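Sorry, explain these tokens?

___
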Amino acid sequence: MKFSIITLSLITLVTAAPVAEQSGEISYGALNRDHIPCSARGASAANCRPGAEANPYHRGCSAITKCRGGTGNNNAIWNGLGG
């Protein structure tokens, strides 16, 4: 009884398993899967423009660097003079 249940379950798994295509190469569709080609629906690819950067990088200010390289007088904040 156990043997027939195990055999039946193995046959079911083998026949139900999807067959993966094994070409050895990654398709362009897989590379662009998370890419949105255009922000406007129905617009052609020739009219698409890249959008603005969502979160531009801003280096944090820490006491050890005393905000070097920034614009304005950022050192005044750390010296207790206000800003």
Notes: Residues 2-16 form the longest helix (15 residues). The radius of gyration is 29 Å.
